[in-house]
UniProtKB/TrEMBL annotation:
Residues 295-424 form the CdaR GGDEF-like domain. Belongs to the CdaR family. InterPro entries: CdaR-like_regulators, CdaR_GGDEF, PucR_C-HTH_dom, PucR_C-HTH_sf, PucR_dom. Residues 494-552 form the PucR C-terminal helix-turn-helix domain. This is Transcriptional regulator, CdaR. It comes from Streptantibioticus cattleyicolor (strain ATCC 35852 / DSM 46488 / JCM 4925 / NBRC 14057 / NRRL 8057). PANTHER family: CARBOHYDRATE DIACID REGULATOR (PTHR33744), DNA-BINDING TRANSCRIPTIONAL ACTIVATOR ADER (PTHR33744:SF1).
Length: 558
């Protein structure tokens, strides 16, 4: 960090010159990037900004217009300040036009009452600058080392955020694109005060660049994401503006923390048996196209799972109540559940690739022969799995979902994705089972048999399963962001008014009754909604788009 003019004046070599600030005292916080000695009156053209100019004034002009122009040119180029040594050109005091011009332009003007060696001043200041840069470099190296270690160790987001807060000495918050808090560290302050009204406050903070400082809120913010897809923001709260410049240490800490979080999201860490790991590799290869169809078929056949010339059905087993605070416990739970599912498939003679696909779900690609009945095979597998899990203590609660059957390995990805989508949506719709309760809760009218299929999932479920997708969050912000921001800024409830209107089938009279408002007042609120969003609520397509966005907002917030 470069020293300020005030700090430079405190150096011994300058203090011996009896410095006195005669103008521009309010700008003594200007940073001094370099010291330049010159007697020229047109020196401004040789400067780049941030220089402290030293002169005896022997070649400065005498008339007040020229002196004002000299000061103006220094200020325009961004000089940090001007130091004039008395005794050669000016005996006891600086010319009043020079002082008035410096005060008017806010340029620090310092008079030295005693002669000093300018070379000694430049050496001292430059040594100060170099030492400050070296200290900053060492601090930056320590920051990079710390976050490299966190990345290598596969630290959880909470650990990374905690380290950011510790290094910055300020509260740190990780949020998603919907301004919901994913992790935070209050840095010893009151967590309630930090998080109270977070979404409303966060919506008011916008930065033009990827990393930026909001002076009004005192927030230093950077985007979090990788491969061109941002999925959140990392925020330092209550940071002084003087410490938040683009080259500051806090910016380095914040950006390195964001990079570590982005990298951690890309890494997958699990410990499976070699067989399960191989199955999982093949399933992932199908889902991500990382393996060719022929490669998957060849390797699966070598594992005893023929996939060519067979009917294929994707199945997802989704655990309920996966502990999110104990990563090792969750991994062990999922690992045991995966092995139990594989044992149930072997017991029932179901041919399938079986492996964990994420932190709370096990995927199956079931391979059926020409004479095998699809429903009977899935029901038999479900019954065997439930019987095996009843012996577990505590028995994990789960649900099962299946995709549509396909006749080619090239379409296997579609059935696996469909099963995962149905499972996630059904998980949102089903009541939670308590830990220790095995099997699947039966919800009348929701499904037939032991598993869910696509017809059981409707729009709310679909939006719920997409709630963490940045594209859905972006859609919600695009459709409803101005209205949410308006409510947050003015304390209104226009989102509720719009919701009541759309859920009332666009019947204004019924909506006004539902909102417990007079019709004129309700109609006025609707008009305000239209003005804020720039839409016509008489258009069906606009209302449909807004209704979907409201349902998505509910899913994201839920």
């Amino acid at each position: 960090m470069y020293p300020t003019v005030a700090e430079v004046l405190e150096l011994d070599v300058l203090r011996r010159g009896n410095p006195g600030v005669v103008a521009g005292a309010d700008a003594l916080a200007n940073r001094v990037r370099w010291v330049h000695v010159s007697e020229l009156a047109d020196i401004a053209g040789m400067l780049r900004g941030g220089e402290l100019v030293l002169t005896t004034g022997v070649m400065l002009p005498a008339d007040k217009e020229s002196l004002a122009r000299y000061i103006g040119e220094l200020a325009d180029v961004g000089a940090a300040g001007l130091v004039v040594e008395l005794g050669r050109r000016y005996a006891d005091e600086l010319p009043r036009p020079l002082v008035r011009a410096a005060e008017r332009r806010g340029l620090p003007l310092v008079a030295l009452g005693t002669e000093v060696r300018f070379v000694a001043v430049t050496e001292a200041v430059h040594e100060h600058v170099v030492n400050a840069q070296l200290a900053e470099l060492r601090a930056s190296e320590a920051v990079h080392q710390t976050f490299n270690e966190l990345a290598v160790e596969g630290a959880e987001p909470g650990e990374v955020v905690r380290e950011v807060a510790r290094m910055a000495g300020a509260p740190a918050v990780l949020e998603n694109l919907s301004h919901q808090v994913l992790a935070f560290d209050a840095a010893g302050r009151d967590p309630q005060g930090l998080l109270d009204g977070w979404e409303r406050r966060s919506r008011g903070v916008r930065t033009a660049a990827r990393t930026g400082y909001d002076e009004r809120a005192g927030w230093l913010v950077t985007a979090v994401g990788a491969r061109g897809r941002d999925w959140g923001r990392l925020v330092l709260v209550g940071v002084p503006g003087t410490e938040a410049d683009g080259a500051g240490r806090l910016t380095v800490v914040l950006e390195r923390g964001a990079s570590t979080l982005a990298l951690g999201r890309l890494l997958e860490r699990d410990r499976e048996s070699l067989e399960r790991q191989t199955h999982r590799t093949l399933l992932s290869g199908v889902l991500t196209h990382a393996l060719t169809v022929s490669d998957v078929a060849l390797r699966a056949r070598a594992l005893g799972v023929p996939l060519e010339g067979r009917r294929l059905v994707g199945v997802m087993l989704r655990l309920r109540g996966t502990p999110v605070s104990a990563a090792l416990e969750a991994q062990a739970r999922l690992r045991d559940f995966t092995e139990t599912a594989a044992l149930a498939a072997r017991e029932r003679g179901v041919t399938a690739l079986i492996g964990a696909l994420d932190d709370g779900g096990v995927g199956l690609l079931v391979s059926l022969g020409p004479s095998e009945d699809e429903h009977a095979a899935l029901e038999g597998f479900a019954a065997a799995l439930e019987r095996l899990l009843e012996a577990a203590s505590p028995a994990p609660a789960y649900l099962m979902a299946a995709g549509s059957s396909v006749g080619s390995l090239r379409d296997a990805r579609r059935t696996l994705l469909e099963a995962a989508q149905v499972a996630d949506a059904a998980l949102h719709a089903e009541p939670r089972l308590p830990e220790g309760t095995a099997g699947r809760a039966r919800v009348p009218g929701r499904r037939t048999g032991s598993y869910y299929r696509l017809p059981d999932v409707r729009l709310r479920g679909l939006l719920h399963l997409l709630r963490d997708d940045a594209r859905l969050q972006t859609y919600v912000e695009r459709e409803l962001g101005p209205l949410l921001a308006y409510d947050a800024e003015h304390g209104t409830d226009l989102i509720r008014i719009l919701t009541v209107y759309l859920t009332s089938g666009r019947n204004k009279s019924a909506a006004a009754d539902a909102a417990h408002m007079s019709r004129p007042s309700f109609y006025d609120r609707l008009h305000k909604v239209e003005r804020v969003l720039g839409v016509d609520l008489d258009q069906v397509e606009s209302c449909l788009s807004l209704h979907v966005a409201l349902l998505a907002l509910e899913a994201v917030r839920g």
